[in-house]
Hints:
Blueprint: E1 3-8, E2 11-13, H1 15-27, E3 31-36, E4 41-44, E5 49-51, E6 54-55, E7 66-69, H2 75-79, H3 82-94, E8 97-101, H4 105-110, E9 118-119, H5 128-134, E10 138-139, E11 144-147, E12 150-153, H6 159-172
Parallel strand pairs: 1-3, 1-7, 2-4, 3-6, 7-8, 8-12, 9-10
Antiparallel strand pairs: 4-5, 11-12
Helix pairs in contact: 1-6
Amino acid sequence: MKKVALIVAGEGFQSKEYLPIKEQLEAAGVVVVTVSDVSRQATDNEGRGYPVDLVLSAVEALAFDGVFWIGGSGTLEHLDNQESNRIANECMLLQKFYGAICIAPRILAKAHVMTGKKATGWNGDNALAQIYAENNVEYIAKPVVVDEYLITADGPGSAQRFGKAIADVFAAKV
């Protein structure tokens, strides 16, 4: 059985991304572990609490088939850090599936785990193409982009497709 870590900010993650992705993966038989920079409970962008299974500093990429970062207003403040960089680099080196949705792909770009890859993400501030160019990532303006082990999506409207894309790559790798 496949096992995925969904990483959410302790405050301000986008539940409209998290919930559909989690549901898609669980429907496909994937075990989902919710990870955050806080223990016990993370708070979404609307103030609702969600249980946390594992704290970010305890994540070892080897224990998962994939690791994915969820976006939202608190993502850059809470997850753009050394632990996220460590986990992303472990995923890349171990050839685990990894990726992010909405604003979270910016964390992966800055962690240098998207170098030479094609990716998408939230571009509401029209800065994503520049951020990607600075980090040698090719920006593709599509809802979901899969490039080998890297999977990215542009925001809440693509959350179900993102979850399905993750489930599909697992199904294809059986």
